[in-house]
Amino acid sequence: DQAIRFFRQQNLIRVSKEILEIAKGGDIEKYDECQKLFDEAALVGEDDDCGFSPFDVEDEALSPTFKVSIPTGISKLDAALTGGLDKGKMGLLIGSAGFGKSTFSTCIASHASTCRCEANDYQGFKVLQIYFEDDDVDITRKHFARITQTEARFMKRLDIANRDEIEYKLMSHPDKDMIGENLRLKHFRSGTKTASDIEVFIKKLINRGFKPDLVTIDYFECIAPEKGGYNTDTEWTREGVTMRKLENMAKDLNCAIWIATQGNKDSINSPEVVRMDQAGGSIMKVQVAQFIISIAR
Question: What are the residues facing 217 on neighbouring strands?
Answer without folding.
Answer: 130, 259
